[in-house]
């Protein structure tokens, strides 16, 4: 069994960097210095199928505990996802079906392994204990928290004041999440700042069951690509952990300059001293491009690896900065694409992801029609709908063989050698008939 590390420098970094608040810091620091192997929990509900860089912030904090030799727990809230976390919501979340939850979480562990050493992770699902509770157990659990405590939650308070619907199952959500910490005997729990109420409820429920309350670490929320709101799939301002290295690098480069320091601090291993010097240089008027490229490289490196980051940077410099056509371009054969779409649609028949099936059908229909630029874009997957394809063309975001297409109704002749379709600055696809 690996020995727990009590290195002072590493402990101080864990407690200070990338943390918003620690409850109770003195207690956690004492535990870390004791050499005791702690059980450290991070829970994520599978309300979506994609883990993104916002999740990477808390996953990296979990990895710091793992690197010190502690037992980390990656908890997938497959039971609580049926209710949905009411945090920040002004109305009840539509309940998810079991099929939707299973579909969403099927690749969670694989995605988390991009940050964690998954072989040393205790992976748990809260349905393991919550689904087996009988009415007596549920009544006992509800006795561990009061109405006044739950009603003081900010978003609940607002909905009560506005006489908006607030269901009892939503009231139960933080209590059930708190019980997860009882079931897992958690010493520490990690989450974003928006999860503070739920994390503290874990302490409360543990106390009521006679357990020592967990210490809590909240991490800052990562701002999304819009530069305003937290990174979220629902806001479409996210960078997925599964994005190709070139795509991840390119998206990071679209971040506002104001994100450089927080990006370096939360998502890279660059030392705090170096980051302070960068912050000083930027304040003195240094061109931010150099540091943004550093940020993009380091983030891709931590998620994908050094070689992948190097390749992504070269790709960006050639295609974006030097406006060269990349050496490796995806080739789509329309006949093969048609057959592939049919196969994917057949597989989707039993899936809950209706949106994905509809997009595939739209692509298939587009390949069956005449070769208008809109149909080509939807058919090869560079646009998910004809409406999106039209907007891209109107905004000047589509090129065929290097020429900007301005007419959304233009018919494209696909020559024997094929055509080069470009969306924006980073996406290139060679389209051939045979």
Automatic annotation (TrEMBL):
Binding residue positions for ATP: 233
Coiled-coil ranges from the UniProt annotation: 331-358
Main location per the UniProt record: cytoplasm
CDD domains assigned: S4 (cd00165), TyrRS_core (cd00805)
Keywords: Aminoacyl-tRNA synthetase, ATP-binding, Coiled coil, Cytoplasm, Ligase, Nucleotide-binding, Protein biosynthesis, RNA-binding
Domain RNA-binding S4: 372-434
Entry annotated with the keyword RNA-binding: yes
Entry's Gene Ontology BP terms: tyrosyl-tRNA aminoacylation
GO MF, one example: RNA binding
Subcellular location: Cytoplasm
SMART domains the UniProt entry points to: S4 (SM00363)
Family annotation (Pfam families): S4 (PF01479), tRNA-synt_1b (PF00579)
Motif ('KMSKS' region): 230-234
One CC-aspect GO term: cytosol
Keyword Ligase set for record: yes
Entry's EC annotation: 6.1.1.1
Entry-linked HAMAP family: Tyr_tRNA_synth_type2
Biological role: Catalyzes the attachment of tyrosine to tRNA(Tyr) in a two-step reaction: tyrosine is first activated by ATP to form Tyr-AMP and then transferred to the acceptor end of tRNA(Tyr).
Family: Belongs to the class-I aminoacyl-tRNA synthetase family. TyrS type 2 subfamily.
Subunit structure: Homodimer.
Protein name as annotated: Tyrosine--tRNA ligase
Naturally occurring in which organism (per UniProt): Candidatus Falkowbacteria bacterium CG10_big_fil_rev_8_21_14_0_10_43_11
């Amino acid at each position: 069994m690996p020995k727990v590390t009590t290195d002072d420098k590493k402990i101080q970094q864990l407690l200070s960097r990338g943390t918003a608040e620690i409850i109770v810091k003195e207690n956690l620091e004492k535990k870390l210095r004791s050499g005791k192997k702690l059980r450290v929990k991070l829970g994520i509900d599978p309300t979506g199928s994609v883990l993104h860089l916002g999740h990477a912030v808390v996953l990296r904090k979990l990895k710091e505990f793992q690197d010190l030799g502690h037992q980390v727990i990656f908890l997938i809230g497959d039971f609580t996802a049926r209710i949905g976390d009411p945090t920040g919501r002004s109305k009840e979340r539509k309940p998810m079906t079991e099929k939707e939850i299973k579909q969403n979480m099927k690749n969670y562990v694989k995605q988390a392994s991009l940050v964690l050493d998954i072989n040393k992770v205790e992976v748990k699902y809260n349905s393991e204990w919550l689904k087996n509770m009988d009415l007596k157990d549920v009544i006992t659990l509800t006795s561990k928290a009061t109405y006044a405590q739950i009603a003081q939650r900010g978003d609940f308070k607002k909905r009560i004041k506005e006489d908006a619907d607030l269901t009892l199952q939503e009231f139960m959500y933080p209590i059930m999440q708190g019980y997860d910490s009882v079931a897992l005997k958690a010493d520490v729990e990690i989450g974003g700042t928006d999860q503070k109420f739920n994390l503290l409820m874990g302490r409360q429920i543990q106390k009521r069951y006679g357990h020592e309350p967990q210490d809590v670490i909240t991490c800052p929320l990562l701002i999304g690509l819009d530069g305003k709101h937290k990174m979220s799939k629902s806001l479409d301002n996210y960078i997925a952990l599964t994005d190709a290295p070139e795509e991840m690098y390119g998206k990071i480069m679209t971040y506002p300059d104001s994100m450089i320091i927080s990006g370096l601090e939360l998502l890279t291993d660059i030392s705090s001293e170096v980051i302070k010097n960068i912050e000083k240089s930027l304040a003195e008027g240094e061109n931010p491009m150099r540091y943004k490229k550093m940020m993009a490289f380091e983030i891709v490196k931590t998620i994908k690896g050094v070689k992948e980051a190097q390749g992504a940077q070269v790709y960006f410099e050639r295609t974006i900065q030097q406006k060269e056509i990349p050496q490796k371009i995806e080739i789509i054969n329309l006949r093969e694409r048609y057959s592939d779409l049919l196969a994917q649609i057949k597989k989707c028949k039993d899936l809950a992801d209706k949106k994905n099936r509809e997009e595939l059908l739209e692509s298939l229909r587009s390949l069956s029609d005449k070769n208008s630029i809109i149909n080509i874009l939807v058919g090869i997957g560079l646009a998910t709908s004809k409406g999106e394809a039209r907007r891209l063309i109107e905004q000047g975001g589509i090129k065929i063989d290097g020429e900007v297409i301005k007419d959304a109704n233009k018919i494209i002749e696909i020559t024997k050698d094929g055509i080069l379709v470009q969306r924006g600055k980073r996406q290139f696809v060679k389209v051939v008939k045979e």
